[in-house]
Amino acid sequence: MDKLKEEFARRALPFSAQLKEFIKTNGDVVIGQYTIDQVYSGMKGMIGMVTETSKLDPDEGIRFRGYSIPELTAKLPKAPGGAEPLPEGIFYLMLMNELPTDDDVTNVSNQWARRSNVPKHVFDMLDALPKTTHPMTQFSAAVLALQTESVFAAAYRKGLNKKDYWDPMYEDVMNLIARLPRVAAYIYRRVYKNDVHIEPDPKLDWAANFAHMLGYDDYDFKRLMRLYLTIHVDHEGGNVSAHATHLVGSALSDAYYSFSSGMNGLAGPLHGLANQEVVRWILDLKAYYNDQVPTKEQIAEYVKKTLSEGKVVPGYGHAVLRKTDPRYIAQREFALKYMPDDELFKIVQNIYEVVPPILSSMGKIKNPWPNVDAHSGVLLIHYGMVEYDFYTVLFGVSRALGVLSSLLWDRAVASPLERPGSVTSEWMFEQAKK
Ligand code: CMX
Questions:
Q1: 369 and 324 in contact (C-beta within 8 Å)?
Q2: What average pLDDT does the structure give for the chain?
Q3: Is the CB of 366 under 6 A from ligand 1?
Q4: Which residue's alpha carbon is at the smallest distance from atom 47 of ligand 1?
Q5: Gap between the Cα atoms of 188 and 391, Å rounded
Q6: CA-CA distance, 250 to 254, in Å (whole number)?
Q7: Short-list 320, 316, 329, CA closest to 360
Q8: What is the 3-state secondary structure (H, E, C) of 238-270?
Q9: Is residue 181 in contact with ligand 1, taking CB distance under 6 Å?
Q10: Which H helix or E strand runs over 127?
Q11: Helix H or strand E segment including 13
C-alpha cells in the first residue's frame, strides 16, 4: 500500500467508526427548521449534508479544514523559490485533516506523476469531436471516456465488501486527479494550438507540469497555476459541482461518473462558466466604448445597460458569501505583485469600485461583492492565455481536488444514498393554510 493510502486509512477508518457511534447516540437531536421560502429558493441555507474538506462562512469566506486562504498561503509548502502554495498541499490537508510537510507534498506529486498515463482511446474520442465543441463538453466527455479505467467499478463487479469501498475509490481518485492536467492540456492544444501537443515533464510539480503541457513555460505563469489550482479546489459541499459529484457518487457511481456530473454543473454560467463570461463581458464593455479603456462613468452606464437587458453582471454575487470573496482578494494580491500596470487589471479594479453600489441599489441582491470568477480571467490573459472558453476547464481541474477528496471520505465513512424528499406545490399550499 502506498504511504498516502496508508495514512488515509489510519485516519479515515477510526473516524468512520466514531461517526457511526455519534449518529447512533445523537441521531434525534434537532439541528434546524426551514421555511417554504427556502424550499422554493434552491434549499439555500438548509443544512442537508456533511462535507469534511471545507466550510464556508458568509462573511469570512472559505476555510479548508479550518484554515483560511491567507493562512494557507503562509503555511502550505511551496516550490523552491516560489511564494504560492502547491495544490498538492491543500489536497493533502483536505484528505488528512493535517498540514503536510514538504515530504508529504513531494510524495503526492510523485504519486500523481506515476499515475498520469491517459489511455489512447480518450484522445481518439476527443479527436472525433468537432473542434468547435465547448472545452467543458470535451472535458466532461473525456472524464467519462476514462471511466473504462475505474478500479472501483471493476472491483464492485467482482464483488466488494462495503467496508472496503474506500480502497478502490482511493485508486480512482488519485488516478483521475493525476490524469486531468494531461486531458485538459490536450483539449487546449487541440482546439487552440493546431493539435501540437507537449509531453509531460514528470520532474515538475503538478501545477507547473500542467502549465508546461499547456505551452506556458514562463515561471510567473507556473506561479499563477499553483495559486489558481489551490484556491479553486473546494467551497464546502452545497455548490453545484460539489453537490452533483457527491449526489451521483451516493449511488456508488465511481469517481469518473461522479466527477463528470460535477463538471456538467460547473459548466453552467451561474457557477464556474462565469469566469469566461466575465472576460466576455469586459471585452464587450471595451468594444462598446470603441476599444478605449472605459471610465468609471462608462462602466456604470454599461452595468445599468446589462441589468436593463435582464442579464446578470458576471463575477458578482454569491449564494452564500456576503463579502468580497477571499479568492478574489488572493488573485488581486497576485496581480498587484506581478502585473500592477496591466490594463485589464486596472479595468477590473474600476469595476470593483463601480458595480457593488449599483447592484445594492437594486434592493434584491443579497451579495453585491465580487466572487472568484471576477478576477481569474485577466490574470490568464496577462500571460497570453486569451482563449476564455477554456477557463472553466482550469477551474474544473482544480475543483477535482476538493470534490474527489470529499468523495473518498464519503466512501470511507459509508455515506448513504442521497434521496431528499420532494413535495408538490399543492402540498405546500395545504401546509401554508395550516
Ligand atoms: N447581477 C444581476 N443580478 C443579480 C446578480 C448579478 N451579479 N446576482 C444576483 N442577482 C439577482 C438574482 O438574479 C436575483 O434576481 P431575481 O430575484 O429577479 O431572480 C436576485 O438578485 C437575488 O439573488 P441572490 O439571492 O442575491 O443570489 P442567488 O443566490 O440567487 O444567486 C448567483 C447567486 C451567484 C447565481 C448570482 O449572484 C449570479 O447570478 N451572479 C452572476 C453569475 C456569477 O458570477 N456566478 C459565479 C458564482 C461563483 C461560482 O460558482 O463560480
A1: yes
A2: 97
A3: yes
A4: 271
A5: 10
A6: 9
A7: 316
A8: CCHHHHHHHHHHCCCCCHHHHHHHHHHHHCCCC
A9: no
A10: helix 120-128
A11: helix 3-26
pTM: predicted TM-score of the whole model, two decimal places: 0.97
- C-alpha cell recorded at residue 195: 493539435
Whether the CB of 40 sits within 6 Å of ligand 1:
no
DSSP secondary-structure letter at 78? B
Q: Residue 358 has which C-alpha cell?
A: 449599483
Residues catalogued as catalytic: 271, 318, 373
Residues 6 or more apart in contact with residue 15 via CB below 8 angstroms: 412, 413
Cell triple for residue 369? Answer: 461583492
102-114 and 87-96 helices cross at what angle (nearest 10)?
Answer: 100
* Residue in this structure with the C-alpha cell 474544473, named with its chain if needed: 396
Task: List, for residues 196-223, the tens digit of each pLDDT value.
Answer: 999 999 999 999 999 999 999 999 999 9
Best residue among 37, 40, 318 to mutate for probing ligand 1's pocket (most ligand atoms within 8 Å of CB) is 318
C-beta of 243 in contact with ligand 1 (< 6 A)? no
- pLDDT, one tens digit per residue, over 274-319 is 999 999 999 999 999 999 999 999 999 999 999 999 999 999 999 9
Three-state DSSP state, 434: coil
Domains of the chain plus CATH, in order, are: 109-270+395-412 (1.10.580.10)
Q: What angle do CA 299, 395, 48 make, to 5 degrees?
A: 100
Q: Residue 140 corresponds to which cell in the numbers above?
A: 466532461
Let me know how long the chain is.
434
Please tell me the chain's helix, strand, coil percentages from 3-state DSSP, rounded to the nearest 5. 60, 5, 35
Which grid cell sits at 429? 399550499
